[in-house]
Design a protein that fits this description.
By secondary structure, the protein is mainly α. It is built from three helices and no strands.
Length: 83
């Protein structure tokens, strides 16, 4: 019978709440500099408010989805090393 594992730091509800708050703060901090910068749009769309924050978010999401697709191809069976 396995003993109950003690909670890790990231399993605690108060830590999860702090991480969500940190995520919101970081998201706001990526948009705040957009108020104070003078944008010179080279391609038209890059002059919109919050464009680079949105571009970073979409790029990160695409990388995660791409890595999940690659994992389906590269995944090995559980008993691979037991042969």
């Amino acid at each position: 019978m396995k003993q109950k594992k003690e909670f890790d730091y990231f399993d605690r509800p108060e830590t999860i709440k702090k991480l969500w708050i940190l995520l919101y703060v970081v998201c706001v901090l990526t948009i705040v500099p957009d108020f104070f910068t003078d944008r010179h749009a080279y391609f038209g769309v890059d002059g919109y408010f919050g464009f680079f924050a949105l571009l970073g978010f979409i790029s990160c999401a695409v990388l995660i989805l791409f890595s999940k697709l690659i994992a389906l191809v590269l995944k090995t069976k559980e008993d691979y090393y037991d042969r």
